Structures are given as structure tokens and as C-alpha cells.
Q: What sequence folds into this?
């Protein structure tokens, strides 16, 4: 029964309002149980860090995600390992063999020049949907706001489907300080001149998720979400938690004019 007025949520094969989970080794049987109940509130699944390369039953896991209409891809660390060892063609072949249609191009560990990343994106988008990542995994590296905006814009213009803002699974780098606090000035500047429907903000904790929901709206794209947290996150998006309790039915933030998908 639907009798409450809740914030309007995107649904189905949505293009924004995404929940992107990080899978750091969920056993296949447990994953099946979780997806049976919660697949409708999961859009993207990242096989975290470089773990895909050593994951047992990887093909079955990829097939399971796809069976539930969830888009799987490998974490950017695996891409960077392949870049470091000059194995990008082999990596792309590996993804095609697995039936993975999405690829992340990142430089969280390595310092890959922007031109090289754009060249790789140009190659990758012939066969894959591309997600680029901006920001470093080094919590002590403070990237200027202008550089964040410039890279995000360049990646979107290059044809990336989405751009991820680095936050790590710990929430202590990139868009966060080493103490875990959101760099709110950075976020406010990013959403001013860029389409936040094309950005995925890594938000591994409820504290981070609630910040973005209250700042940008219930249909903000959130990444690095733990599998065990997807239902609580959906409740937060729907104003069913104290910290998001007063979200309006049509949130008057950055996403309220966006058409539903």
C-alpha cells in the first residue's frame, strides 16, 4: 500500500539516482540471496580494487549480476595494474571474454597523464561503456577545485557515461579529508557548473550518503556502497531516516528538474 508522500525516486533501467555497490569478495551463494530481495535498488556492481583477477567463480558472479539487470565492472585498480604492465589490450580482451560491458579508467594509484587517459577512453568506448574516475587515493593530495572541474568536463566531453569522484572505500581521500569529513566547498563547486546526474559520488558510509542526499537530492548517484547497506540507503533516499526525514516530495535541490528515467 502506498499511502505516504515520499521523495520521487527514479526506477527501472535508470540513468541517474544510481546505487553502485562495491563487491569485495561476496560469496556467490550469499550474493544470490541478497540480489533476490534487493536487485531492484542496485544499478551497478564494482568488483572492488583488483579483486576480480583472483575471484573464484568470477564468470558465474558476472552472469548473476547481469541476470538481475545490474551492470558489473572491475575496479579501477585492475585497470591501473594493466596499464603499469602495458597490458591494456589484454585487459580489454579479458573483459570482453567475461561479457563485461563497462570499464573504469582511473588514476587513483598511478599518476597517468590526462592525455593518456583520454586516449585510452577513445579506444575503450568503441567496445565498452566508459566510467572515468577523478581524484587520488592519497588522502594527503589536495587537488585544486579547478582541476577537478576541468577533468570531469574533459571526460564527459570524451564520451564517458559517468565520472566517479574518488572517495575510497574508507571515505578518507579525494572528496573527503583524512578525517572522513566531506570537502563541502569542493562539492558545492562541482555541482554548480556540471551535470551531477553524470557524476557518481563515492559514499561508503551512511554519514557520507546522507550528506549527498540532503545536499543534492534523493536521486544523487552514489558509489562504493556496501551490499549490506543498500536497503538502509534506499530508506534514506525516501526520507525514512531521521537525518533525511524532511526531504520534500519533490526535492528542491539540484536534481528536482531532471526528468525521471
A:
Amino acid at each position: 500500500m502506498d499511502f505516504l508522500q515520499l521523495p520521487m525516486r527514479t526506477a527501472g533501467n535508470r540513468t541517474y539516482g544510481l546505487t553502485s555497490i562495491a563487491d569485495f569478495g561476496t560469496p556467490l551463494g550469499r550474493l544470490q540471496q541478497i540480489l533476490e530481495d534487493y536487485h531492484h535498488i542496485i544499478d551497478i556492481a564494482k568488483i572492488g580494487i583488483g579483486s576480480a583477477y583472483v575471484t573464484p567463480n568470477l564468470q558465474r558472479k558476472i552472469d548473476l549480476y547481469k541476470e538481475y539487470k545490474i551492470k558489473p565492472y572491475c575496479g579501477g585498480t585492475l585497470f591501473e595494474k594493466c596499464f603499469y604492465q602495458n597490458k591494456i589490450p589484454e585487459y580489454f580482451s579479458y573483459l570482453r571474454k567475461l561479457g563485461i560491458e563497462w570499464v573504469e579508467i582511473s588514476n587513483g594509484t598511478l599518476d597517468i597523464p590526462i592525455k593518456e587517459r583520454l586516449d585510452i577512453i577513445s579506444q575503450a568506448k568503441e567496445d565498452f561503456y566508459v566510467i572515468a574516475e577523478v581524484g587520488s587515493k592519497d588522502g594527503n593530495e589536495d587537488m585544486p577545485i579547478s582541476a577537478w572541474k576541468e577533468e570531469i568536463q574533459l571526460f564527459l566531453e570524451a564520451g564517458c557515461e559517468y565520472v566517479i569522484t574518488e572517495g575510497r572505500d574508507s571515505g578518507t581521500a579525494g572528496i573527503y579529508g583524512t578525517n572522513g569529513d566531506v570537502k563541502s566547498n569542493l562539492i558545492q563547486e562541482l555541482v554548480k557548473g556540471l551535470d551531477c546526474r553524470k557524476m557518481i559520488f563515492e559514499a561508503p558510509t551512511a554519514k557520507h550518503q546522507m550528506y549527498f542526499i540532503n545536499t543534492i537530492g534523493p536521486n544523487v548517484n552514489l558509489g562504493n556502497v556496501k551490499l549490506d547497506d543498500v536497503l538502509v540507503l534506499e530508506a534514506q533516499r525516501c526520507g525514512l531516516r531521521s537525518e533525511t526525514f524532511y526531504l520534500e516530495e519533490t526535492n528542491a535541490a539540484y536534481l528536482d528538474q531532471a526528468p525521471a528515467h
User: Anything to note?
Assistant: The first strand starts at residue 19 and ends at 23. Residues 145-157 form the longest helix (13 residues).
